[in-house]
Amino acid sequence: xxxxxxxxxxxxxxxxxxxxxxxxxxxxxxxxxxxxxxxxxxxxxxxxxxxxxxxxxxxxxxxxxxxxxxxxxxxxxxxxxxxxxxxxxxxxxxxxxxxxxxxxxxxxxxxxxxxxxxxxxxxxxxxxxxxxxxxxxxxxxxxxxxxxxxxxxxxxxxxxxxxxxxxxxxxxxxxxxxxxxxxxxxxxxxxxxxxxxxxxxxxxxxxxxxxxxxxxxxxxxxxxxxxxxxxxxxxxxxxxxxxxxxxxxxxxxxxxxxxxxxxxxxxxxxxxxxxxxxxxxxxxxxxxxxxxxxxxxxxxxxxxxxxxxxxxxxxxxxxxxxxxxxxxxxxxxxxxxxx
Length: 339
Hints:
The protein has 339 residues and is α/β, with parallel strands linked by helices. It has helices spanning 2-12, 16-37, 58-71, 89-96, 110-119, 155-164, 179-190, 203-211, 222-230, 277-291, 294-302, 313-334, and strands spanning 47-51, 78-82, 104-109, 131-140, 142-147, 170-173, 196-199, 217-221, 234-239, 265-272, 306-307. The chain has a six-stranded mixed beta sheet with strand order 2-1-3-10-4-11, with helices on both faces. Helix 7 (179-190) crosses helix 12.
């Protein structure tokens, strides 16, 4: 109490001008303290999305569109950085080694975050430990199709031909240990047959050979096949989603032949491990707002991706756990060994 009395006495002895200055300082002090304690608003500078695919590839087109829409709600732009090569390894490694400061994200596909772990003996990144899931963007169906000249109107007739002449049915894929290759082998195994893979690095090259009759079947993302299907150059035999898709309503689902079967690729956003949780939550919420817009949904569908309109961070984490478990079973069933 004595200290308080001495302080009050000191204030009374100040001149009127000194007392006014003291009052002004006291009034300003709380605001100054709040400013010191406040975290700077995010983002303060451009945000980067790293991709494992080259510019112009399907995932790149999707990522640029999503980034453009997402950037409209942020005061800073989103920059796309393409790091292709090594079956997604180069881009994934670059993203994993980036600072976990909320300014670098990895726009990834199934291969980099799930299947690579089963097809490579060693990876320079850990899909589980090096990243945190942010938001699933969309799912990408795959289609199995045949050249219009190929004498099989559905999967049942394909299986019949393969059984009548074992080893003669060829299928264009991205390779036996890729998403499309493992889908093709899963379908063949369920049908009791075997397809011979003809691997391609470019979808356009694969389609030229299928249309020309040099390869009988093709298994690729529907975005790569839709134009050819609508032009009547190839015939859709099955799509990998659980339900038929509006833009390819005449193509039956694999589930119609094999009940319960669903096998889709996907694309999503991940952050380097250690990224602040509040920034991860913010990006998840902002992406959800974008993906709920009807015009965005329609555009993604045209690009071959079915927008995921609702998925929280915990839900995406659970989704990823399920994907790893599912793919572990697929790889085991097909007898695929890591190299």
